[in-house]
Amino acid sequence: MNATPARAQLGQHKRAVVKIGTTSLTYPNGTLNLQRIEKLCWVLADLYNQGKEIILVTSGAIGVGANSLGMEQRPRDIIGRQAASAVGQAMLMQIYQRFLQTYNRNAAQILLTRDCVDNKQRRENAQNTVKQLLAMGVVPIVNANDTIATDELTEFSDNDNLSAHVAAFSESGLLVILSDIEGLYNKDPKTHPKAILFHEVNEITPAMEAAAGGSGSSLGTGGMTTKLDAAKIALQHNIDTVIASGEDPTILLRIFSGENEGTLFTCMT
């Protein structure tokens, strides 16, 4: 299938934010899927070699930390989340750095709270740091700072929301959200085998929002609803958004090549 004009323009974006969810980083038992993470790092490094600037927003710290600490499920209390996040974040960054260095790239950790978006000075500080890292060829790896976030004023509701804000303040042209679902369907594909995938969306309608479901994993926090919310934020800033499966990270290369992967939300008509 030939690329549509909207798909073809994705390859023109130099800077992009890629958000990957917990379920794409882990096995169902909560342990890290090292093969997938290594492949993701290879793809990121290859995109940098092509002249792209990629900011990675990663989930997984709380889920990975909870598994490492022997918790049967993701903790719901604040202190439990903070402890699990502190352990899991250290593990994640060590693995990302190790794999990226294999492909001659360095990683930098950036932990954000809500006031880094809402406060003008802190927003500019975060923006300047990200831009300088990109200029140095370093891969910024962003996560919510769950270790200090204690209430809804300082905590992002989910990393889908965070990734949209990062795309906005970093002046990215594209946001890619990788998850355990292939894109936006007209019905829940888990319960409706004949559900139809939307390939391109120019307007998020109430019917689409009604079709969105909750999180499908005990390890993750987001579902399609949070991804639609992120797409809305991105569209407000004229940022194209693709929601696609994170099962195979090489999908990023196909998205930049204009292939018809996932669901593209675009202002282009």
Taking pLDDT < 50 over at least 5 consecutive residues as the criterion, the unreliable ranges are 214-221
Radius of gyration: 17 Å
**Which strand order spans the largest sheet, edge to edge or round the barrel?**
3-4-2-1-5-7-8-6
Shape: globular
Can you describe this structure in just a few lines?
The chain has 269 residues and is α/β, with parallel strands linked by helices. The protein has helices at residues 5-8, 22-25, 34-49, 61-68, 78-102, 115-118, 120-135, 159-169, 206-211, 224-236, 251-256; strands spanning 15-20, 53-58, 107-112, 139-144, 174-179, 200-201, 240-245, 263-265. The two termini are 19 Å apart.
Fold blueprint:
Layout: H1 5-8, E1 15-20, H2 22-25, H3 34-49, E2 53-58, H4 61-68, H5 78-102, E3 107-112, H6 115-118, H7 120-135, E4 139-144, H8 159-169, E5 174-179, E6 200-201, H9 206-211, H10 224-236, E7 240-245, H11 251-256, E8 263-265
Parallel strand pairs: 1-2, 1-5, 2-4, 3-4, 5-7, 6-8
Antiparallel strand pairs: 7-8
Helix pairs in contact: 3-5, 4-5, 8-10
What key attributes describe this structure?
eight-stranded mixed sheet; 269 residues; alpha/beta
How does this model look, in words?
It is a single chain. The chain is built from eleven helices and eight strands. The protein is α/β, with parallel strands linked by helices and 269 residues long. The protein has an eight-stranded mixed sheet with strand order 3-4-2-1-5-7-8-6, with helices on both faces.
